[in-house]
Amino acid sequence: MDITELLAFSVKNKASDLHLSSGLPPMIRVHGDVRRINLPAMEHKDVHGMVYDIMNDGQRKIYEETLECDFSFEIPNLARFRVNAFNQQRGAGAVFRTIPSKVLTLEELNCPKIFKDISEYPRGVVLVTGPTGSGKSTTLAAMVNHKNETEYGHILT
């Protein structure tokens, strides 16, 4: 499977993440559980090649200098992904986080009214904390979207 097929498989199975790691088969995270995909273990050259092929020149330079790089990648008509490419003891690795194409509303997220109230404050700092995959980015996107739809002005994040 190439990277596009692996990511399509990940999206089809409603995975939040696709994990690629040298010496292990590809894995997906679904509802917090990491599951192996029924494929052979990947070699360093396979993982490195998949990740390197989707990087631009600037990202490749960073990756070569630091052995890690964060970037985004999009497959049109499928999804966007936040990518963390890295090297570890076994070799190359990468995690692809699926980024929803539609920003959910605060109502769709069943957020209490206080989230709307906070998003309407004229100034201040908002901290949203929690473990990986708990909805921090989704919540903040909904709050920014609410502010954008209800007020006129510039939003800096």
Question: Biggest β-sheet: count, sense, barrel?
Answer: 6 strands, antiparallel
Q: H/E element string?
A: HEEEHHEEEHH
The top-level CATH class of the largest domain is Alpha Beta
- Number of distinct helices: 5
Distance N to C terminus:
37 Å
Mean pLDDT across all residues, rounded?
A: 93
Notes on the protein architecture:
There is one protein chain. With 157 residues, this protein is an alpha+beta fold. The chain has five helices and six strands, in the order H-E-E-E-H-H-E-E-E-H-H. The protein has a six-stranded antiparallel beta sheet. It folds into two domains: 3-99, Beta-Lactamase (2-Layer Sandwich); 102-157, no CATH class. The chain is elongated, with a radius of gyration of 18 Å. It has helices at 3-12, 44-54, 57-66, 113-119, 136-150, and strands at 17-21, 27-30, 33-36, 68-75, 79-88, 91-99.
In terms of topology, how is this protein built?
Blueprint: H1 3-12, E1 17-21, E2 27-30, E3 33-36, H2 44-54, H3 57-66, E4 68-75, E5 79-88, E6 91-99, H4 113-119, H5 136-150
Antiparallel strand pairs: 1-2, 1-6, 2-3, 4-5, 5-6
Helix pairs in contact: 4-5
Q: In short, what is this structure?
A:
The protein has 157 residues and is an alpha+beta fold.
What key attributes describe this structure?
single chain, 157 residues, alpha+beta, Beta-Lactamase, 2 domains, 6-stranded antiparallel beta sheet, 34% helix
